[in-house]
TrEMBL record:
InterPro entries: HORMA_dom, HORMA_dom_sf, KTI12/PSTK, P-loop_NTPase
Domain called HORMA: residue spans: 10-199
Pfam families the UniProt entry points to: HORMA (PF02301), KTI12 (PF08433)
Source species, domain of life: Eukaryota
Family statement drawn from the similarity comment of this UniProt entry: Belongs to the KTI12 family.
UniProt-recorded name of the protein: Protein KTI12 homolog
GO molecular function, one term: ATP binding
Assigned keywords, A-Z: ATP-binding, Nucleotide-binding
């Protein structure tokens, strides 16, 4: 019996248990929670899925499978209203980074059937949603927790095996979290029961592992709203008084144009703002006689690391300035200002997302701290010494610009590799794995198995990145080199 036959049998409890397991496995696989060996491969309609394997030796994997199995004891009794899978960062166990909620309803009469097409649709929607999330930081550790929320008629003494009772305050905290704006929602209905999936993702995670500091550059950082721009202006005036050429890049232009609430309540607009700030810094860093001062709320560690990489790329020095204030001062300024400003909700969210810099971190050193908006001459002199008396950073392979990245070369690289992929796809449609002839190459492709389009495109991206770091002089060799590359990764997979 195939997995599809089991999933779509007449037993609705098994149906729900299977689809919940599939979705949990898909989330953990796409979010890279376990090694590839923790999963087994199965096909579901047009989809090739990775499911958690009960034969795995990883205790964490076995525990998750056990939790899911035990939770469905509550489903059979029609007690379970919601199953929440929460992902936490080890250093912040009080607040989840991501929450995935499975909402269950019973005795809901409907004519809808639990079809394979509906299930495929929800999985495709979920995959599209997950692929737009930034990966978790490899420098941080995360763990998974499961919570069961019950219907009111559930007996007080009831508790499934392996689950422990928790206070109602925790439930309300989870409910509060689930009201965030960024969410994925879908729905499956079967027989007299209803299964709903709702995924909520905390905004902070959108920038969890984005690469980000500057050049003879200065990175001004703040909790919010207490005069960071005034401090940036004072620093700018200090250098101008010494006849040193400066450029002050500020986020105020964009904030005034759209309004801070509109930008910081929309993850895509917030990313666009950071991209604009970074591009402005990058455009002006090549001027060796210029000090670039970035006046913006650079509260994300990842963004500061990107700016640090720019400093290395352009072989410059940099300084990080942290503007310190108390929460009380910030809130007073928020309430008393007459300008179009932050709402209290957005202000609080930004304040809570603040990631303090540390002088022990190499891309946040040297670090200067200014408290309560006061800036003394000794501090300004220290900033000047840090910019002009230190050695410039040296670029490495990951930050150094390469001569091959011209528009013409990149177009050729893109076109030739895409043509190879299309010819491989054409051969695979006829189940041809060996001796695949590729135009403009004397070498033929030999595959050891049938690769999906996603895998072939991943090989293509890997090859393009390799060529960027290892330039070749003759673009006529691109196709042959790509063929050799595919043969190599095919043999190793």
């Amino acid at each position: 019996m195939s997995s599809e036959d089991i999933l779509f049998s007449d037993d609705s409890i098994r149906n729900f248990q299977r689809i919940t397991g599939i979705i949990v496995s898909t989330i953990l696989y796409v979010r890279n929670f376990f090694n590839e060996s923790a999963y087994f491969c199965t096909e579901f309609g047009r989809l090739k899925l990775r499911l958690l394997s009960s034969k795995n030796s990883d205790v964490r994997v076995l525990k998750i499978i056990e939790y899911l199995a035990n939770s469905f004891h509550a489903f059979r009794k029609k007690y379970m209203r919601k199953l929440a899978m929460e992902i936490f960062e080890h250093s912040r166990p009080e607040s989840p980074v991501e929450v995935y909620e499975f909402n269950y309803e019973y005795n809901r009469l409907t004519s809808s059937d639990f079809s394979r097409e509906e299930c495929e649709k929800i999985l495709l929607d979920l995959l599209n949603f997950l692929e737009n999330l930034s990966p978790f930081s490899k420098r941080k550790k995360f763990f998974v927790s499961f919570k069961i929320h019950y219907y009111p008629e559930t007996p007080n003494e009831y508790n499934p095996e392996e689950f422990i009772p928790y206070e109602s305050s925790l439930q309300s905290e989870s409910d509060e979290f689930s009201r965030r704006d960024d969410s994925f929602r879908s729905n499956i209905v079967v027989e007299n029961s209803s299964f709903r999936l709702k995924v909520n993702c905390e905004r902070e995670n959108s920038d969890y592992n984005v690469s980000p500091d500057p050049h003879n550059s200065l990175n001004s950082r703040i909790r919010s709203l207490f005069g960071k721009s005034a401090i940036a202006v004072k620093i700018n005036e200090f250098f101008q008084a010494k006849r040193i050429k400066t450029l002050l890049i500020r986020d105020e232009e964009q904030l005034k144009r759209f309004g801070p609430d509109e930008i910081y309540s929309d993850a895509s607009k917030e990313k666009q703002l950071r991209s604009w700030l970074k591009s402005e810094v990058q455009r002006n860093l090549p001027q060796s006689d210029l000090i670039v001062i970035l006046d913006a709320a650079n509260y994300i560690k990842g963004f500061r690391y990107e700016l640090f990489c720019l400093s290395k790329q352009f072989k410059t020095t940099y300084v990080l300035v942290e503007c310190i204030s108390t929460e009380l001062i910030d809130l007073n300024n928020l309430k008393n200002t007459d300008k179009k400003c932050y709402s209290e909700r957005i202000f609080t969210e930004l304040y809570n997302r603040y990631e303090p810099p540390s002088s022990n971190v190499r891309w946040e050193n040297p670090l200067f701290m200014i408290e309560s908006g006061l800036i003394e001459d000794s501090l300004l002199n220290g900033i000047e010494a840090a910019l002009f008396d230190r050695k410039a950073l040296k670029p490495n392979k990951s930050t150094e610009s390469l001569p091959v990245t011209t528009d013409n070369f990149l177009n050729e690289l893109d076109n030739q590799t895409q043509e190879v992929i299309q010819q491989i796809q054409s051969a695979l449609r006829w189940n041809q794995l060996k001796a695949i002839k590729i135009t403009n190459s004397e070498i033929m492709i030999d595959l050891n198995r049938k690769f999906s389009i996603a895998e072939l495109n991943r090989f293509r991206r890997q090859f393009i990145n390799y060529v960027r770091l290892n330039p070749i002089n003759d673009k006529e060799k691109i196709t042959t080199m790509f063929v050799q590359f595919i043969n190599k990764v095919s043999d190793e997979s």
